[in-house]
Design brief:
Blueprint (H helix, E strand, L loop, with lengths): L1 E2 L2 H15 L3 E5 L15 H5 L4 E3 L4 H13 L3 E5 L10 H8 L2 H4 L9 E6 L14 H5 L5 E3 L4 H13 L4 E6 L25 E2 L12 E4 L4 E5 L2 H13 L3 E5 L2 E3 L3 H11 L2 E8 L4 H13 L8 E5 L9 H4 L3 H12 L2
């Protein structure tokens, strides 16, 4: 199998989807001729033409609104919001139109569209290029929310999202585009080359939405993470020699509650890790579900490791970013060591 970066895997997924189905169209700001700010769509316009991969005005509500109309008429738009931080002007279109179209039309219309967005920090993007808004979408009935952590999943999950008959929010951790990141910013960048999850099958395949993956089996504690935080958790667990089970959620909605519950019932302890702010973050939902379904198995309160309740700072990036030290402190707390 070919070794790919996450950028290459996403581009390959779009290429495969467009090649299989003429109804798949790709558009957004600079995604056509320029190939996207991160080059995830590079070469697609040259291959499929300007009617299937094209640039749009800088107008997020217009981009999403156009996609909803296309989807209602039978196309499968896969659009890109250049950074997740820019999605807010389109939030009303996503929530009030795309997410509710099937319900409000009594099933006569659907919105089979995928909204791709680079998300998260770790690249010195400051407060308007580093946000993690996943909880804003998981709160909305009718949306599915996906956050891959590696190239193999990115391709398979994106193909599944494009084929889904309902709207999917596809959040791409930008710090993982070119390599896994363990949270140690002072070290040299690690490329995807040589990583087993960078081996991406050729052609078509899909990863079902709603299934988590156990990245490291263990018995002492469960770490629930997604996106970049999967790699931070794995690195910290390995460095401290803790026998923790690391669960990569992959899809936040639908959520693989069976996998989560089975892991926590086995270990009796749970740490939830994400980049987004603490208050009303998706970790709060995870903690509530663990308490509800695993209460009699818990040996300690569920711990959360998150970003702070502030705008994402530029100068204090690594104080905000939930790094290995904070993950280790939470594990020590739940293990009472």
């Amino acid at each position: 199998m070919a070794t790919m970066t996450m950028i290459e895997a996403i581009r390959d997924a779009l290429d495969v989807a467009m090649g299989r189905d003429d109804d798949v169209v790709v558009f957004g700001e600079d995604v056509g001729y320029f190939g996207g700010v991160f080059r995830c769509t590079q070469g697609l316009q040259a291959k499929y033409g300007k009617t299937r991969c094209f640039d749009t005005p800088i107008n997020e509500s217009g981009i999403v609104g156009t996609a909803i109309g296309m989807a209602a008429y039978g196309l499968r738009p896969c659009l890109e919001i250049q950074f997740a931080d820019y999605v807010y002007p389109a939030y009303d279109q996503i929530v009030s139109e795309a997410a509710r179209l099937r319900h409000r039309s009594n099933g006569d219309f659907t919105a089979p569209l995928t909204i791709r967005m680079p998300t998260g920090g770790g690249i010195f993007g400051g407060q308007t290029h580093s946000q993690s808004p996943e909880a804003l979408f998981t709160h909305v009935a009718g949306l599915k929310t996906v956050v891959p952590s590696n190239p193999r999943d990115a391709k398979g999950l994106l193909l599944a999202a494009i084929e889904d008959d309902d709207p999917v929010i596809f959040l791409e951790p930008k710090r993982l585009y070119n390599g896994p990141f363990d949270g140690h910013h002072e070290r040299a960048v690690t490329p995807w080359a040589g990583h087993p999850l960078a081996e991406v099958p050729a052609g078509y395949y899909s990863e079902p939405l709603g299934r988590a993956a156990i990245r490291r089996p263990g018995a002492a504690a469960t770490v629930l993470a997604y996106g970049t935080m999967v790699h931070v958790a794995l690195a910290d667990v390995a460095a401290r020699g803790i026998d923790a089970e690391v669960v990569d959620l992959r899809t936040l909605l639908p959520l693989d509650l069976d996998c989560i519950a089975a892991s926590v019932r086995k270990t009796g302890r749970c740490v939830v890790v994400h980049e987004a702010t603490l208050t009303s973050g998706f970790g709060a939902e995870l903690a509530a579900l663990v308490q509800e379904h695993c209460f009699f198995h818990l040996e300690a309160p569920v711990a959360r490791v998150t970003g702070w309740d502030t705008p994402y700072p530029h100068a204090q990036e690594w104080d905000y970013f939930p790094g290995p030290a904070r993950v280790g402190e939470a594990l020590a707390a739940v293990l009472e060591i």
